[in-house]
Amino acid sequence: MATNDLKLLGGWFSPFAVRAQIALSIKGLDYENIVENLNSKSDLFLQSNPVYKKIPVLIHGDKAICESAIIVEYIDEVWKNNGTPSILPSNAYDRASARFWGAYIDDKLYNSLRNGLFAQDIESKKKHFEELAEVLLKLEDVLNKSSGGKDFFGGEKIGFVDIAFGCYLSWLRVKEKFTGEKAFDEAKTPSLVKWAEAFATDPAVKGILPETDKLVEYALAMAAAIPK
């Protein structure tokens, strides 16, 4: 679908920008993908998100939409009748539940993963990665209860929780490279093992998730820049 009035200000390394890209892909929308230099932010970016000054920002015509979860909901709402799958459930309770777990992921998973990757001492890393393991066990349980035996949290199709979680897959693979341990354990999280494969190979996601080795280099550069 030609939508030349759509621009996404983001970054290839950002799970939050990836989140918006996947939503745009599910809806079959064409857009201009603009990679922001966060060390020298563009005027367009600063004008579009003057409050938080964070990526991503979706620009739709003369409107700027900020914050990745809000962007996903906006995309789903505006293009709900274009013949593509809905991202959020139709039932009000299920929508509320999806938003709850999306917020949980951004709180618990993001912070434990980020803090574990960039902690300066071994004990802190261990603590945060133990917290991450607990989060993944919880999400295994949520997947088993919400999927109805299908591939995704949303059932047969990728939904809001899948996007909220799946945008971190490449960073979880970075964690695997750093620690030598699998993020998803066949014994403890077998459903997540299958889910991750189904998500990463879905046509709407293929080509969007960052390459792990490239992200490892980026993470190492970030770690080196942290004051000792």
UniProtKB/TrEMBL annotation:
Gene Ontology biological process terms from the UniProt entry: glutathione metabolic process; toxin catabolic process
Record flagged with keyword Transferase: yes
EC number: 2.5.1.18
Protein name in the entry: glutathione transferase
Record field: catalytic activity: RX + glutathione = an S-substituted glutathione + a halide anion + H(+)
Gene from which the chain derives: 11413719
Claim: Transmembrane is one of the keywords in the record: no
Ranges of residues in domain GST C-terminal: 91-222
Species for this entry: Medicago truncatula (Barrel medic)
InterPro entries given in the database record: Glutathione-S-Trfase_C-like (IPR010987), Glutathione-S-Trfase_C_sf (IPR036282), Glutathione_S-Trfase (IPR040079), Glutathione_S-Trfase_N (IPR004045), GST_C (IPR004046), GST_C_Tau (IPR045074), Omega/Tau-like (IPR045073), Thioredoxin-like_sf (IPR036249)
GO MF annotation list: glutathione transferase activity
Enzyme class: transferase
Keywords: Detoxification, Transferase
Gene Ontology annotations for the cellular component aspect, listed alphabetically: cytoplasm
Protein family: Belongs to the GST superfamily. Tau family.
Ranges for domain GST N-terminal: 4-83
